[in-house]
From TrEMBL:
Cofactor(s) needed: Mg(2+)
Functional description taken from the UniProt entry: Digests double-stranded RNA. Involved in the processing of primary rRNA transcript to yield the immediate precursors to the large and small rRNAs (23S and 16S). Processes some mRNAs, and tRNAs when they are encoded in the rRNA operon. Processes pre-crRNA and tracrRNA of type II CRISPR loci if present in the organism.
Annotated ranges, domain RNase III: 4-133
UniProt keyword list: Cytoplasm, Endonuclease, Hydrolase, Magnesium, Metal-binding, mRNA processing, Nuclease, RNA-binding, rRNA processing, rRNA-binding, tRNA processing
Listed name of the protein: Ribonuclease 3
Domain of life: Bacteria
Active-site residues per Swiss-Prot or TrEMBL entry: D50, E122
Keyword Metal-binding: yes
A biological-process GO annotation: mRNA processing
Length: 229
């Protein structure tokens, strides 16, 4: 593991309990090869960080975007805390350089793996919250995750799901909403695949497959948007 004091300087945070910071970078794969290691994996910190991130995001939206609806809040939050956003923030901080991974994960570019990096970023949020308190965790999230990004997402409506985007389009152009129809269910009950069709004014615009009707509808809406463009 690289010298964590460099990361502390970058964050302008001096951890009172250094082990909490160390714990951020212990991937579970590392423990498979080092069963007597003195620290657990970062999964509990990640769980805590995820909860703190959810609260900070909700609070920020509530205080700064009062004109938006609750449904908008939900979609914006999903957009800002998705794996890609968290992994990008982790890359900016070079968190991958500090990770302790198994040899296999290291060979397979685990330090660049989006899921591992996103989990690590959430673990870091959890560690800052535990060691420094809510305000420091809040400031960290605002600086490294929200800065210059949230306004852009909201202004360009990048948070809208394909279904929401399609509905917004059809309401503006035709004064109606798309209709979704379940066409087929494939596979056994425990592993069902749904096929959904989306139509606008009785004209078919797209199909989607998914492990739930919702997922299939979103994919159908995405295909319809591409067809419209």
């Amino acid at each position: 593991m690289n010298n964590l004091s460099d990361l502390e300087k970058k964050l302008s945070i001096t951890f009172k309990q250094k082990k909490i910071l160390e714990n951020v970078f212990i991937h579970r794969s590392y423990l498979n090869e080092h069963k007597n290691f003195y620290l657990p994996s970062n999964e509990k910190l990640e769980f805590l960080g995820d909860s703190v991130l959810s609260l900070v995001t909700s609070l920020f939206l509530y205080q700064n975007y009062v004109w938006l609806k609750e449904g908008d809040y939900t979609e914006i939050k999903a957009a800002i805390v998705r794996t890609e956003s968290l992994a990008y923030a982790a890359k900016l901080l070079k968190l991958g350089d500090y990770l302790l991974l198994s040899k296999g994960q290291d060979r397979e570019s685990g330090r660049k793996n989006k899921n591992i990096l996103a989990d690590c970023f959430e673990a870091l949020i959890g560690a800052i919250f535990l060691d420094q308190g809510f305000e420091k965790a809040n400031s960290f999230i605002l600086e490294y995750l929200f800065s210059n990004k949230l306004d852009k997402i909201i202004k360009n409506k990048q948070y809208l799901s394909p279904k929401s985007k399609l509905q917004e389009y059809t309401q503006a152009k035709f004064k109606l909403i798309p209709t979704y129809k379940l066409i087929e269910e494939i596979g056994p009950e425990h592993d069902r695949i749904f096929k959904v069709e989306v139509a606008i004014k009785q004209k078919k615009y797209g199909f989607g497959y998914g492990k739930s009707k919702k997922e299939a509808e979103e994919k159908a809406a995405k295909e319809a948007l591409e067809e419209i463009k």
